[in-house]
Amino acid sequence: MEAAIFFAHDKKKNFDYSAVKDCKSTASENLELRFHRFPKLNEVKAWKIATKINKILSNTKVCSLHFKKSDYILPGKLILGV
Ligand SMILES: [Zn+2]
User: Fold this and answer.
1) For residue 35, how far is its CA from the centre of ligand 1 (angstroms)?
2) Helix, strand, or coil (residue 8)
3) CA 21, CA 53: separation in Å to the nearest integer?
């Protein structure tokens, strides 16, 4: 029973926010923004430097305010500061 309650609670909290320091963007309030999960490959180092985020969790995301149009190289895939 407890597991079921926890699961329901967890699902409710499922909205994105920007992990960048001093950025208050959330997916629930900033509908025009996109939220990007950190990449798992080589790009992660460049992302860390550009966003000054050192600790990356599975739900750590960065909103599109921190990207330039030129950062987007393929739909859904980006490289920062390279
Ligand atoms: Zn942001």
Assistant:
1) 8
2) helix
3) 8
Between β-strands 72-74 and 61-63, what pairing exists: parallel, antiparallel or unpaired?
A: unpaired
Q: Are 25 and 63 in contact (CB under 8 A)?
A: yes
Give the single-character DSSP code of 26. B
Residue extents of the structural domains in the chain = 14-81
42 CA to centre of ligand 1 in angstroms: 22
Mean pLDDT by 10 residues, the chain (82 residues): 51 76 94 91 86 90 91 66 55
Residues with C-beta atoms within 5 A of ion ligand 1: 18, 20, 23, 25, 63, 65
- This prediction's pTM: 0.68
